[in-house]
Amino acid sequence: MNKSQCPDALTIQAVADGEENDLIITEHLQDCSKCRETYLDVQRIISVAEGLSSDARLPIGFYKVLSGRIESKPFPAFLVAAIISALAFISVYLLNPTYLEWWFSVGMTRQFGFYIDMFFDLFFLSRSINPLWVITVMTAMVVLEFLILSKLKTVEG
Amino acid sequence: MQKLLQGMVETYGDRIYRLVLRYTGDHTQAQDLTQETFLRAYKHMDSYDRSKPAGPWLFKIAGNLCRNWLRDNRELPADLNEDLYQSTDSGPEELYLEKEGARELSRVLRALPPIYREVILLKHVGELSYAEICETLDLEITLVKNRLYRGRIMLREALEKGGYY
Ligand SMILES: [Zn+2]
C-alpha cells in the first residue's frame, strides 16, 4: 500500500483500536481529511462503547471460596451406595427379622442379585446427583416406611 | 495446578466478572457464573494449551455459560444495577444524564443481534485484542473486524435515533 492510497474502513478501525500501526497508514490519516474524518468517527463510537465496561471487581476472598470448592472432595459414591444399602437391610430387619432369615435360606440367589443391582444403581445415581441428596431422600423414605408400618401394626393390634 | 488457576483468577477474574455482569445484570449471579467458569477451567485444565495465554480459553468457557444462562433466562436484563455504571466525579445533573446515557447504551446493546453483541462485549468489556477474540469465538480475523465494525455502526445509529449520540 502506498501513502496516497486510502485504507478501507476496517483498517482505519484497526488503527483506532491500536491494532494497526503501519507508518504509511498513520501518515495517510494525517494527510487525508476524508480518512481522518472516518478515523475520528470510529474513535468516537469506541469511546462511547467503552462506557459498556464498569469498574466492578470480584469481591475480596473470591479465590478463597473458589479454592474451598475445589478442595472439598465429593462424598465417595460407593460409600453412599453402601450406606443406603445398609439402611435398606436394617429397615427390613427391624420391620421383620424373620424375612431376612427366610431369604438367606430360601431366596438367596434372587434376593442377592436384587441387592447387587440396587448397589450399582445407587452408585451411579450418586455420581450424577449430589450424594447427600440421595442419602437424605432415602433416609426420609425409610423413616416414612417405619411410620406407616408402625401405624399399620397399631391398626392390626 | 491451583497456582496456575490462582494466576488466571488474578489476571482475568475481574474482566470475566464484568463481562458476565453484562449478561446477568446481577452481582450475585455474576459471581456464581464467574466461579463456575474457573471451576470448569480447573476441571478441564488438561485441555488448556499452556503455551498460549489463558484469556481466550477462559472467555470461551465464560461465553458458553453466559449463552446457557441467556437461554434459561430468555434475554439480557432490562436494566443493570446502578452501581454497575462507571463512577465519575460529575455533579448531580451531569450524573443523571450520564446514567441515562448508560441505560440507553445498555438498551441498545440488548437490541443488537447476538453475533455483533458478543464481539463488542469481548472487545470493550473483556478488553481482548482482535487475535484473542478470534480465538475465543473461533472466527477468522476479517469476520471479527467486520462484526466489530458493523456492530459499532449499529450501536451508533441506534443511539443517534434516541438522541444519545
Ligand atoms: Zn484517505
Tally of structural domains of chain B = 1
Low-confidence stretches of chain A: none
CATH names the topology of chain B as Arc Repressor Mutant, subunit A
CATH superfamily grouping of chain B: Winged helix-like DNA-binding domain superfamily/Winged helix DNA-binding domain
Q: What is the annotated CATH architecture of chain B?
A: Orthogonal Bundle
User: Which descriptor suits the 3D outline of chain B?
Assistant: globular
Task: Summarize this entry quickly.
The complex is a heterodimer of chains A (157) and B (165). By secondary structure, chain A is mainly α.
Characterization of this structure:
Chain A has 157 residues and is an all-alpha fold. Chain A folds into 2 domains: 49 residues, no CATH class; 80 residues, no CATH class. Chain A is 76% helix and 0% strand. Chain A contains 8 helices and no strands. In chain A, helix 1 crosses helix 3 and helix 5 crosses helix 7. The longest helix of chain A is centred in the C-terminal third of the chain and has 26 residues. Chain B is mostly helical. In chain B, 37% of the residues are buried. Chain B has a single domain, classed as Arc Repressor Mutant, subunit A (Orthogonal Bundle), CATH 1.10.10.10. In chain B, helix 1 packs parallel to helix 3. The mean pLDDT of chain B is 90. At the A-B interface, helix 1, helix 3 and helix 4 of A face helix 1, helix 2, helix 4, helix 5 and helix 7 of B. Bound molecules: zinc ion. Zinc ion binds next to helix 3 of chain A.
